[in-house]
Design goal:
The structure holds 2 protein chains of 2 kinds.
Chain A (H helix, E strand, L loop, with lengths): L2 E3 L3 E5 L4 E8 L6 E6 L6 E6 L3 E5 L2 E6 L4 E6 L8 E8 L8 E3 L3 E6 L1
Parallel strand pairs in A: 2-11
Antiparallel strand pairs in A: 1-3, 3-8, 4-5, 4-9, 6-7, 7-8, 9-10, 9-11
Chain B lengths: L3 E4 L2 E4 L5 E7 L5 E7 L5 E9 L2 E4 L6 E3 L9 E3 L8 E8 L7 E2 L3 E5 L1
Parallel strand pairs in B: 2-11
Antiparallel strand pairs in B: 1-3, 3-8, 4-5, 4-9, 5-6, 7-8, 9-10, 9-11
Classes of the chains: A mainly beta, B mainly beta.
Amino acid sequence: GQSLEQPSEVTAVEGAIVQINCTYQTSGFYGLSWYQQHDGGAPTFLSYNGLDGLEETGRFSSFLSRSDSYGYLLLQELQMKDSASYFCAVRDGTSGTYKYIFGTGTRLKVLA
Amino acid sequence: NAGVTQTPKFQVLKTGQSMTLQCAQDMNHEYMSWYRQDPGMGLRLIHYSVGAGITDQGEVPNGYNVSRSTTEDFPLRLLSAAPSQTSVYFCASSDYLNYEQYFGPGTRLTVT
């Protein structure tokens, strides 16, 4: 079956760097995505990795290692507004399907 | 450009009642999906569609029906509401092969 594992909670201070890990198990692989969700809000797309390596978008970077079935989201220069839940997601690799599987999310708390 | 819209924002149902959650997008996206999110859990896929007239089941389809008669609309029907269907429901859309999903604001449903 498909599954993704993330830590349930991470705490860091303003200005610091934090890494949120995601390990996945899928029957096929079409890349790893990351979403941010503030309390009471809708998920918003942050990044996508289809190939191994690092993708950078401003203060956020995402990394993928397909051989290790592992990826992470790196948040730099943390700000209070980064306090949110972060989800990794993969697309089910079974031929002919387009099902997305989400991890259970990592709640990030940024302390002043 | 409104993006993805959902109605209603909040709904309370009694056990056994039926209702339809509405979802519409104005981005001409082929792919649309419905998720439910329960406390402490990630997003779980209920049903999805890759185009008008084409739908398929996700991870948790029981108790829900969908249809896709137009590109823009993707309603979710609860046939006979149960307390276990108390959740927040999100609709999302994306280009067919684009991994960035756009989410609606969500519908908070309580079944008593």
